[in-house]
Amino acid sequence: MAGTMLLVLCFLVASTDMFHRSSPSGKVEIAKWHKFESSRGNDEAVMSFAANFDLSSCFSWNTQQLFTYIKLEYETENHKRSEVTVWDGIVRNSEHARIDTESLPNKYKLVDHGRGLRGQPVNVTLAWNVMPFVGKLSYSEMGSRRISQRSTLEHKQASKPASQLVAAVLSLCIAMQRAV
């Protein structure tokens, strides 16, 4: 009997959150390719992102945390669809759900099995999972944007000095550490 009551209570609690509507905003794009080379028969890339997004509206009283990530999607001759996660982070509260930086470094390098990535357009997408205290996980994404590597490689000349890059990375690390 107690187990049934607990199950009913959990269902009622989770159902109240179904009426919560979020309105996240922002964009993310590749700001700079730091390294793009062939290594052992594979294309490898390291890049940084211009990221400006606000996911604070995704939080409700039932939100434990958000798992956020940036994924790249592209096609090559050998692989019809490749999807690679190059950055991720956990946001534990709405105060830390805003990021505004011109130089968010990728955490994981992009490795394409083969040498077909060069010259291919890349979709950049910010995605997140809402992890509730009680109820089902939900998945959302925004900002799927097709970017040509060539235009982004030309962006390199207009990049910020290294000191500004280091300052932005340090502030991001401090913000992520506070979230933990």
Helices and strands, with pairings:
Layout: H1 2-16, E1 25-39, E2 42-54, E3 63-74, E4 82-91, E5 98-105, E6 110-112, E7 122-132, E8 138-147, H2 149-154, H3 162-179
Antiparallel strand pairs: 1-2, 2-5, 2-6, 3-4, 3-7, 7-8
General description of the model:
With 180 residues, this protein is an alpha+beta fold. 22% of the residues lie in helices and 46% in strands. It has three helices and eight strands; from the N terminus they run αββββββββαα. The chain has helices spanning 2-16, 149-154, 162-179, and strands at residues 25-39, 42-54, 63-74, 82-91, 98-105, 110-112, 122-132, 138-147. A hairpin with a 5-residue loop joins β7 (122-132) and β8. The protein is elongated, with a radius of gyration of 19 Å. The protein starts with a helix and ends with a helix.
N-end to C-end Cα span:
38 Å
How many strands, which pairing sense, and closed or not: the largest β-sheet?
Answer: 4 strands, antiparallel
The helix/strand series, from N terminus to C terminus, equals HEEEEEEEEHH
Number of helices: 3
Strand-pairing-aware structural class: alpha+beta
Shape: elongated
Strand content: over 45%
What proportion of the residues is helical, as a percent range? 10-25%
Overall mean pLDDT stands at 78
Low-pLDDT segments, ≥5 res: 148-177
Radius of gyration: 19 Å
Total beta-strand segments:
8
